[in-house]
Amino acid sequence: MYDVAIAVDAPTNVIWAYGAKWPGKHVDKGAMLLAFSDTKDTRNVGSTSSYVVILGTIVASMATASLALRFSFSKAHHLFETTTDLSVGEGILVLLYLTGLVLVLALLPFYEANIVAFDRQVSLASGHLGLFHLSLLIVPVSHVGWWLNLAQSRLLKFHKALSVVFLLCGGLHLAFSIKAYGAGIVWYRDPFGSQRVVPLFGFVALGCFLCVGVVAIPIIRLNLYELFLAIHRVLFVAGIVLVYLHSRTIQIALICPLVIYGIGGIFVRLPPFFKTYTVTTAITTSHTTMLTLPLTKHTQRWVTQYRLCSHAYVNVPAISATAWHPFTVMITPARDGIAFCIKSVKPHSFTHKVHVLSHLHDHLNVKLAGPYGQPTVDLTKYQQVVLVGGGIGVTPLLGAINFLDSHAHVKMHLCWVTMMFPLPHFVTAEFYVSLAISEGQIETDRGDVVRYSPGRPTADAILQRFQNIPRTVVLACGPEGMIVDAQREAYDRGFDFQKVVFAF
């Protein structure tokens, strides 16, 4: 045992060791540089500041979403550049996020470099920032999204961005923890420090989240969607449990987002597993299938409360008990049910199997989760609605046509690169054949003549004819390049804009 003199004006090197029994050898030992001062009160790392800020940010975001986002998109182009994808309400959410971020950094107990090593300070800061982003990214995917008044695809935009920042903070936290304490710290299973941190749990949790991030890469997610969804759900829950055990601060900070996520799981995610519907099948083309859910007592509210741009997850037990895929929800022309138009994209895929089953059966049993999402514009309040669609992207546009059938004051113009005929009398249409070199026409089975133009439509040519119509909105769904062009031209002309994307 040694006596160490304590100086109030300089850090003191304290040597420590402990054993589990007496007599016996030391179980662990080490040294720590401590600063004792009679003039300065250093804050404990385990203060409640971080999770109070997290809770406040979430509550403020929910309050903002329930108010500002209801008037969110119509004036966005006056506040942002034309290439932006943020509505006014979303911009407010971003400001709240940045405010919370600054507060977390400001409330962290940074010490002078000669008292606490720089590596430990970076480890501390990155850990708290990672916790802040983890807490926020849980909320958009809780499926308790009605208060956001946003389409699910727009909620996922925030989820993806927060996830990337969270993984970067987690990697930084791991790297500087190893640099500060040594590589063996990641396998340490005993709690230590004021927060009783268990490094092993945090290390394994980060591994789970990294695996989730890898399968979310677009090339993997879009080609192996079922694998992505299974790994995403299982490892995300496993990572949450492990990171919850990592630190006492995390346990308190995650209470609010986990309660929201749990409510969504119990009341939104679980019920679809126990309800089966019977849909009628119809082969519309060599590659597309129409699944129609007739109007019943249970599904009547889906028709009466139909929301444009919404989607539902469809499960076909005859194909897989675990595969759930998102498809656009359409309302039928007679408003007597909802329908899903499904295109077979490649052999042996889920959509191809649905197409094959529809050839064999007139009816299929399905399970439905949803519908989720809603538009940020009210099409019934406009004088002119311009629909720009590409390929199967016309599906939500057809839903808009059927929905607006009872609103005679709304004039609609559809620009589509493929063909559907006949169309309602209140819809004007133009068709394009991408491989044609000149204008032409074809005759349908009904004897009607349909004219088409060569090439692909340009947003400028489509929208310039509506320049003098005051209340005009553009609704687009299709290839990314087409949507970007339509959005830019709509904003340049002062039109409101809504895009529909389902690239989950």
UniProtKB/TrEMBL annotation:
TM segment ranges: 51-71, 92-111, 131-150, 162-188, 200-220, 227-246, 252-270
Topology of the protein relative to the lipid bilayer: Multi-pass membrane protein
Pfam family, one: Ferric_reduct
GO cellular component: plasma membrane
Subcellular location: Membrane
Domain FAD-binding FR-type: residue ranges: 270-378
Gene Ontology MF, one: oxidoreductase activity
InterPro entries xrefs: FAD-bd_8, FAD-bd_FR_type, Fe3_Rdtase_TM_dom, FNR_nucleotide-bd, RBOH/FRE
Name of the featured protein: FAD-binding FR-type domain-containing protein
Gene3D superfamilies associated with the record: Nucleotide-binding domain of ferredoxin-NADP reductase (FNR) module
Lineage of producing organism: Eukaryota, Sar, Stramenopiles, Oomycota, Saprolegniomycetes
Record flagged with keyword Heme: no
